[in-house]
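Service request form, structural biology core

Requester: graduate student, group of Dr. S.
Request type: structure prediction, single chain
Budget code: on file
Notes: please return the result as structure tokens.

Sequence provided:
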Amino acid sequence: MTLYRLTLRLTAPLGTPLASPTVFGQLCWVKHEAEGEAALEDWLAQPQRLWRVSDGFPHDFLPKPLCRPRVQTAAPPEDHKKRKKRTLVRRKTWLAHQGHWNEYAVATDDFRKDAALPRRTAHNVIDRQGRGTLDKGGLFFLEEDWRFALEKEKGEASPDLVDIYVETDDGGEAVKGLFARLGAAGYGRDASTGRGRWVVESIEEEKDLLKGQGDRRMSLSRGVLTPETMRDALWKLEPHFGRAGPQIALCGYSPFKKPVLLTRPGTSFRPEGSGPCGRWLTGIHPERPEIGLNGFHVTIPFAEAPLEATI
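Core staff response, request fulfilled:
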């Protein structure tokens, strides 16, 4: 498969974070509308053909890999705290250290927090009988991506630019076309009122990130851990609450999928064999067993620097 890097320019705020399984699910509906139900069913029936999609990251940043802990007695406690909170690393810094990764050999300023980490916002439940909001139990919470609303930081890329990586055999034009259609139609929650819009700023075959040599790989996606192909893995889990979308809900089915636990971007592991990392999940909808979730990973190679000491 060929790895592509898309740069999207957001033209409206995102109501739904750019999580890889959600992005892929929305692309499926765009494909359904453009090519028909038979084409989508044929695509999903062949997991080896499925696109492997990353999360969306601030332009020119990548997730910081999870690695074995190191004892750095010379570093002040404040430095440890800053590094722990900053989950992204500059792309150019990653390329310079990809073959001998040690985050303590990298300047703290080369890391940053993901300012677009989902914010949980409270909303009132409306009393459908016309009496305003409910007095008891009248709140529910939704996650939002606030990247679009952020001001440009000094020396940083514009906050409305997002990088997404896609691995596929279908070619760059097919990737660009489907993402452009999704950006025009609207992605995620409140797309009907103008949220979730973007244009494809650029797309290019990604070669630099694959040049590095190493015995480990880092995931850029939220996916399923497959021990047979992902050995000695270090990961953090996060619940994923998927939605089936209005196309299903308007037909009388539940819009809610079963929650699943997925590994977050930054998961690192030692690859084993030639099989894919991750898998296609089934049985995640209570009424529609054919509905699945793309739990495949986009991964890039790296190597850790030798450990002087470990905890």
